[in-house]
From TrEMBL:
Species the sequence originates in: Perilla frutescens var. hirtella (Perilla citriodora)
Keyword vocabulary terms for this entry: Copper, Copper transport, Ion transport, Membrane, Transmembrane, Transmembrane helix, Transport
Domain of life: Eukaryota
Name of protein: Copper transport protein
Main location: membrane
Sequence similarity: Belongs to the copper transporter (Ctr) (TC 1.A.56) family. SLC31A subfamily.
Length: 152
């Protein structure tokens, strides 16, 4: 056991070197810049494809905008049956939370570009759907959205 036998057990548990070369084993735990990121799915957007990285950024941007839209939309009619309105609210809430988690998981890739487009998507979505710039409701209406606000 003078040949580093204590390391032999660890080497047997790790994948063969050929598998390590085929699969990128780097996981960033701090912010980094560049297109070499895996976002949400294994191998997506792909390390060598700038176009796919830009597409991934666009998807994250629009997911964040959709979260803001769902947070501030008014789809329910005043005369909707309570059970149907409750089911629609629950469905909208589940979709909003699911999309918000997808944006959060994307940001957990620690890619600086992903972080910036997620924040930009939320900001643009809030500007169009939540701010006073395009808000057509009167102050005495009392209802801002069909869903409760996301209190983070």
């Amino acid at each position: 056991m003078n040949d580093g036998g204590h390391m032999h057990g660890m080497a047997a548990a790790s994948p063969p070197m050929s598998m390590m070369h085929r699969r990128r084993m780097i996981m960033h735990m701090t912010f980094f810049w560049g297109k070499d990121a895996e976002i949400l799915f294994d191998g997506w957007p792909g390390a060598d494809h700038l176009g796919m990285y830009v597409l991934a950024l666009a998807v994250i941007f629009f997911l964040a905008v959709a979260v803001e839209w769902l947070s501030h939309c008014k789809l329910l009619k005043e005369k909707s049956p309570p059970a149907a309105a409750g089911m629609l609210q629950t469905l909208m809430y589940a979709v909003r939370v699911g999309l918000a988690y997808l944006v959060m998981l994307s940001v957990m890739s620690f890619n600086g570009g992903v972080f910036l487009v997620a924040v930009a998507g939320h900001a643009v979505g809030f500007f169009f759907f939540g701010s006073r710039a395009f808000n057509k409701q009167t102050e005495d209406s009392g209802k801002g959205s069909d869903l409760p606000p996301m209190n983070c």
